[in-house]
Sequence to fold (258 residues):
Amino acid sequence: MLSDEVVVITGVGPGLGAKLAARAAAEGAKVVMAARSTAVMDQVAKEVASVGGEAVGVPCDVRRPEDVQRLVDTAVDRFGTITGLVNSAYSHPGFYDLLDTPEKQLRRSMDIILFGTLGVTNAVVPHMKAAGGGSIVNIGTMTTRKPMRGEGGYAVAKAALTSATHFLALELGEHNIRANQAIMGWLDGPGVRYFLKFTAEQRGVTEQDVYNEIAARNPLGRIPTDEACAGAVLFLLSRLASEVTGATLDVNAGEHMP
Fold:
């Protein structure tokens, strides 16, 4: 599905980012990963290499132009071009009501989610233009569609990213560059597993009880896994979505239906 594509993925941590990178490589892409910590990227690169794929990790803080330039230079030096970009880097400012969110933490989220994404995209687009086109996928959150208390600061930054996605689609279409957004709901990975454990201990119930409560909110009756949700992002990256741009794809097992 992604044969011969060169895909940059930011925010590669132990959850969705790692699954995206591994699955993209399995689909034939050459993958360049970016994150502040190298531990997860190193493990993914080893796993990809063991099955004959190609992936490289680059330490990168998307707020730092010099880091972003090194990321892009590594991709082009190693693989010759860039044709795909997944903007998944994020920072959560903490679970506060919006007006109680510390300004420093709110600005940090905006710097990473919005301005970091724009910085990486700006550095990648010239290479997509030279390649004759490309695909950008920005990762959103269901809480922009279905507000949950304590998520206001995070949602505000992700909502700005939604608007940016629409304008990127409008402005880059003439260069055959598509821009779309995949909006994730609950993701059954390390973060949610920690939440299940913490909540179960607080309430004196089992983790399965908490899981069942969350899963019951959607028609499919389960919390989607990181790996399963990665497939929706790969679809938007791929030629199968060649006529899709400016779109928002909800990936939440039907918990929110626009």
